[in-house]
Amino acid sequence: MMNVSREHAVALIEQFEPSSSSRTNCHLHIEGLTRFLLSESCFDPEQRLVCQDMTQPLAHYFIASSHNTYLVEDQLKGPSSIEGYIQALINGCRFLEMDVWDGSDDDPVIFHGHTLTSKVPFRRAVEAIRIHAFEKSHYPLILCIEVHCSVKQQLIMVDLLKTSLGPMLLLSGARDGIIDEATGLHHLPSPEALKNKILILGRKLPQPSPPSQPPPPPPPVILTITPEDDTAGGGDVTEDDESAESISARNNERPGSIKRIRLARPFSDLINYCQFQRFKSFTHSAKQGNCCCVESIPECVALKLAHSTPEEFVQHTRRFLTRVYPSGIRVDSSNFSPQDVWNCGVQIAAMNYQSVGLMMDMNTARFSQNGNCGYVLKPTVMREDVPLYNIHKKEIPGVTPHTVHIKIISAINLPKPTGAATKGDVIDPFAKLEVYGIPSDCCEFRTKTVLNNGVNPVFDETFEFRLAFPDLALIRFVLLDDECIGDDFIAQYCIPMDCMQTGYRHVRLKSLYGKDIPNCYLFIHIAVTNKNGGGTSAANGKPKTGRRQSDR
Fold it and tell me: 67, 148, 187, 402: which one is catalytic?
């Protein structure tokens, strides 16, 4: 800790020193120091509250987002439950998904279409969202509703949304965003301006022709009408289909192969700042120019774009909300690496919240900052009109690299791996240090193995790495068992470098499910220097080139 005032020191003594006489004399003895070191002092306390500028356009934030929120297991035959929505909201998620289909007795249902997953009544999900929407965060909640049901049941949906959500539901808003008087460009409103509001993301019909104008000529004899031929009563739109895994396949679809559904005008009128649009290309999006369009990109396509045109990707996400969703082959509800798309400024990395492991650890860590409100302001170079950067380069214009030194000293009270057999009664632990960020910053290190000691193993090893883009870096500590047969995972902790404090720190380790393990800590020392050799008390950084691996 640097530049600590006397008042702050006295407050720490009052908090951690057990002896009343020592507190009176402003003395901190060994027991008080131990209590202080074992406190959650690794994580910057300022980041436990909302501390970032929340008045920027929505496109300038990473948004905690879920995929097929109603599913609590796999994507093919697992159960659907309102618990998926409740748990996601409790964990700070601000983007929920609903796939709505026709139900019996005019009661719309939510489920993963064309699979064996169970169904949840739409009305129950909406009621659960009403109760828990702003329990964890007061910043806007986006409901992505994919409509697969009849017009009759769409009207029932509209009535349920309006009556249940009431004033929370945002019903007004410009179709093309807010005009910036300084630049003349349109942009989305800010999280601050949309506090305690629920936005609907879905298909938007074009405005009906004004009464003074004659109706458009009748279309050719076809089975459907296009949005341009829409009347005030509704129109046909392409059905949302996440099975198309390539842009070329989408763009080359034969007209007769595109499935269309009838969209009710009252449902379309619920859509304002979040209008779904199929992604075709960055050039097409720039020409179209509506900042209210949210474009969904399959995981595999997004990764190709990140590799081939990273500058254009960053430019695109400066202005447009972009959603990346898991590949259709992830039927086990596994997750892609959100870091790969965060590197390009993608705001909505849709995650399967029911799945645990490395990818969700990264997602949890990213949104643990800024008060866990579900919105994290993107780094300056990703949102302001500055020279574009290439995530594959080792230097980022306008960003000062940092060198990080982390010493892994020891651990305390490590449990045995769950669900695995060990060769002996006592574990043989070792620690891994993993760094995630832009490709040139990714690396990992490991300590030696300490034999037969899970109570207080001493590692005493120091690792040094360079971070070219500190603001995007995540640091993950993993404890593993070298004697394990099967799953060798013991514990982990993941934290943004922005939130990590320097000095001697105890890291409170977490289980595979992200829960604190009682009295289980990793003792470390952190030091950070910038490119010019100066020190810093709060680090954002990333390490030298390495490869990304699983916990094994």
Answer: 67
Q: Are 523 and 506 in contact (CB under 8 A)?
A: yes
Catalytic hit among 60, 112, 402, 506: 112
29 included as an active-site residue: no
Cβ atoms 472, 448 nearer than 8 A: no
Q: For 228-237, 259-268, 490-499, which range has the lowest pLDDT when averaged over its residues? A: 228-237
Told to judge if 112 belongs to the known catalytic residues of this protein, a careful annotator would answer yes
Q: Is the pLDDT of residue 519 over 80?
A: yes
Residues 497 and 470 sit within 8 Å (Cβ to Cβ): yes
Segment 108-117, tens digit of pLDDT:
999 999 999 9
Tell which residue, 248, 496, 468, 472, has the closest CA to residue 344.
472
Q: Work out whether the CA dihedral 86, 267, 55, 401 comes out positive or negative.
A: positive
User: What's the CA gap between 376 and 347, in Å, rounded?
Assistant: 9
Partners of 146 in beta bridges:
99
The span from the CA of 387 to the CA of 295, in Å, is: 24
Region 286-302: mean pLDDT is 90
Give the strand order in the sheet containing 489-496: 443-446, 429-436, 474-481, 489-496, 503-510, 516-530, 402-412, 458-467
Q: Give the residue-averaged pLDDT of 177-188.
A: 67
Q: Which residues of 335-364 are buried (b: 16+ CB within 10 A; e: fewer)?
A: bbbbbbbbbbbbbbbbbbbbbeebbbbbbb
Pairing state between β 198-202 and 271-278: parallel
Does 523 or 552 have the greater pLDDT score?
523
- Identify the three-state secondary structure at position 275: strand
Q: What is the pLDDT of residues 97-153, one digit of tens each?
A: 999 999 999 999 999 999 999 999 999 999 999 999 999 999 999 999 999 999 999
CA distance 451 to 454: 9
Chain Cα centroid distance, residue 422: 35
Among 424, 351, 347, 348, CA closest to 378: 347
